[in-house]
Amino acid sequence: MTEHKAQLSFYGGAGEVTGANFHMETAQGTFLVDCGMTQGGEDLEKKNWQSFVYEPYSVDVLLVTHAHQDHIGRIPKLVRDGFRGVIYSTAPTKEIAKIMLEDAMGIMSREAEEKGLDPLFEEEDLKKALSMWKVVPYHNTTEFLPGWTFQFRDAGHVLGSAMIEVTHNEKKILFTGDLGNSPNLLLRDIEDVSDIDYVVMESVYGDRLHEHKDDRTKDLERAIEDIAKKGGTLMIPSFSLERTQELLFEINEFIERGRVPKMPIFLDSPLAIKVTHIFRHSMEFFNKHTRALITGGDDVFNFPGLSLTESTDESKAISHTPGPKIVIAGSGMMNGGRILHHALRYLGEKNSILLFVGYQAPGTLGRIIQSGAKNARIYGNDITIKADVRSISGYSGHADRDDLVHLIDTIKNDVQQVFCVMGEPSSAMFLTQRLRDYLGVNATAPAEGDQVMLDFE
């Protein structure tokens, strides 16, 4: 490896949405960007137990974009398998990652025992990981290898999310992580970047557009109004980080302005409740509008009729509350969590609504139902789906096709190559072609295991 060359390897998140894991070998050391779990059904999730392609002890630094499981979920396994370097992220990312990984550890331990597998990681591995973990503010230039620096740039995706701008010899590579669907209800917009030579870029919605922000609000309001008329249960599978807090914010507005009928609303996710507590003391990361509301005395995550059901008994008791009612529960793709218990109870009822408000990965129960399945199998029970199944893409936390293209358009005169990753193959390829055709940019969609030599001369 010559002094100003670097080999970039795509060991996760290439050719698939989840499992982000990018490996950079340089003459001065080796670093990773993200170390996430693969999600999307049992066959895909088996990959999480496989050994890393590289030797974890050979990695000097891990840079983390944000705290979703598909970006952090295998960090404790990396430590378990020999990593002894330094981990860097923003402060909210570390705080959220701790509770996300604690939650995942419990779930995976039970699943591993059922399947006769060793635990993916244990409490001691997580403690070690957190002891190696340092927090860095946005825009703080930090040298992490000799002659290599990074800065975190606001990605507008979830609380604490960052694009990572890595610089060596006055050349830059930008790892976007997941980019937000700006303008965000709570967070600041995606930050502008400049003078970028290489981009490793997400492409979840690289071939699609979201509906207008006003339309998504109307669709959510309509679902609540419809469930009031039906007298049933509105089930919303929701991601504990960001999506749940956005829903609470929206429903708070509806309730305060008298736009929807009053009814019991349950946040049935211990993890989402913990994450919401972190949001409450992280006001400095919100956009101006939300900060002004909070400063003015509005508790944007609480309103009449809302119940936080932390215990199992409290969750079970929801079934005794007559409709109409709303249940917001994890997990967002219905691949586990309390939403399955409610789906088992209410999917077979015509007066119920199942509302998807986020991306559903291939192979997940959410994707299967969203695609029009008439039956679902939950905890060994076959359910005939009679509930009204709806989707709102505008609440997605991801930038859509035009926003992704716009980001590259702002730096197209400098960028040498764009790598479209973290998307389904069709989405990544569509975005790749669009960047080539519309902007004349050298763009590719690497496959898992691909390697490329980058020039930082």
Number of domains: 2
- CATH architecture term of the largest domain: 4-Layer Sandwich
Approximately how much beta-strand content do the residues carry?
15-25%
Please tally the helical runs, counting DSSP H or I stretches of 4 or more residues: 14
For this structure, the CATH topology of the largest domain is Metallo-beta-lactamase, Chain A
Q: Portion of residues in helices?
A: 25-40%
CATH H-level superfamily title of the largest domain:
Ribonuclease Z/Hydroxyacylglutathione hydrolase-like
Biggest sheet features = 7 strands, mixed
- Which secondary-structure class do the elements indicate? alpha/beta
CATH class of the largest domain: Alpha Beta
Instruction: Note the gap between the termini.
Output: 13 Å
Strand arrangement, major sheet: 6-5-4-3-2-1-22
Unreliable runs:
none
Mean pLDDT: 94
Radius of gyration: 22 Å
Q: Quaternary status of these chains?
A: single chain
Characterize the overall form.
globular
Could you give the count of β-strands?
Answer: 22
